[in-house]
Amino acid sequence: xxxxxxxxxxxxxxxxxxxxxxxxxxxxxxxxxxxxxxxxxxxxxxxxxxxxxxxxxxxxxxxxxxxxxxxxxxxxxxxxxxxxxxxxxxxxxxxxxxxxxxxxxxxxxxxxxxxxxxxxxxxxxxxxxxxxxxxxxxxxxxxxxxxxxxxxxxxxxxxxxxxxxxxxxxxxxxxxxxxxxxxxxxxxxxxxxxxxxxxxxxxxxxxxxxxxxxxxxxxxxxxxxxxxxxxxxxxxxxxxxxxxxxxxxxxxxxxxxxxxxxxxxxxxxxxxxxxxxxxxxxxxxxxxxxxxxxxxxxxxxxxxxxxxxxxxxxxxxxxxxxxxxxxxxxxxxxxxxxxxxxxxxxxxxxxxxxxxxxxxxxxxxxxxxxxxxxxxxxxxxxxxxxxxxxxxxxxxxxxxxxxxxxxxx
Length: 409
Hints:
Low-confidence stretches: none
Structural class: alpha/beta
CATH topology of the domain at 198-351: Nucleotidyltransferase, domain 5
Largest sheet: 6 strands, mixed
CATH architecture of the domain at 198-351: 2-Layer Sandwich
Strand content: 25-35%
Mean pLDDT: 90
Oligomer: single chain
Strand order of the largest sheet: 11-6-1-2-3-19
Distance between the termini: 49 Å
């Protein structure tokens, strides 16, 4: 476990494992102290396929993060994704238990527990029950009903689930690497914490995190999650197409994608050439950037088309004034914002981590959006727990004062 105000996030992706260490400063701002990354070879499409390799990657990333931050790492918040993720919106209703009809924290906990009562297959587990709004006696759009008066308390929630096996496999890898899991957090939810502005979350906005093996989608409205989805496609598919189209090894194709890739051929030129090694590495040849862009564009269009289909199938009827925010490693490909604007017919911007200090100049990249989001999620969780503890302490003091006053008079 991280000690004091230190928070650790572990992002186990299909292409990389990242461990990020942060600390909550005196001004309540999150300061990045250090990070470590390692190549990921035991994860495919967000799921563990090789425990030993995944454990080694986590251990390597932890060691690098400890060296940079100077802090021992024992555990923290872990991002989770994969095609086993699914979600739904559900409601819970309870009667207020207090005879004076004042809503207490216990009532909130009961109504959230009521919302958890859903028919799930035996192999699935609930990851998140996220309240979207509370309703007191028919009055909606309430964010915190504690202290209000009413007889009936309702809640609208967004529930995220995954298979038991997927959760347990990732948990086993973390524990074998000596990393205690405080909580699993949906990657798309974490990315939204890092790259979205509060005003965007309130109006309606979609985060599209294009990772190596998956593309995570999260739609936020009224400050909370409304829809989530994970697609089994990502940057690795672009790399595979380049490897086949250019007849080059996957490692070389990945370098070409990162250093010379572009999603719009119109932004390139036939006079721009890249030296590419062939399979076997004996020969090299020159390929134009336009040829590379012509290979990348159809795959990115396919990914964006799947995103569009999921948003249409979600049932969301709003206008999404916040538009689309792209993040993740594959989102760094040149021209993707322009192509996404054309394909999705909505305003699109690149999402960079916000509201953090420290080593932000080194780590402020869409590549680390989910990892930094895990720290911000943990910081909010600690702030909430601290506020609840202080509230209970005040309630205890008030209760004692009332008892003393009653005994005296």
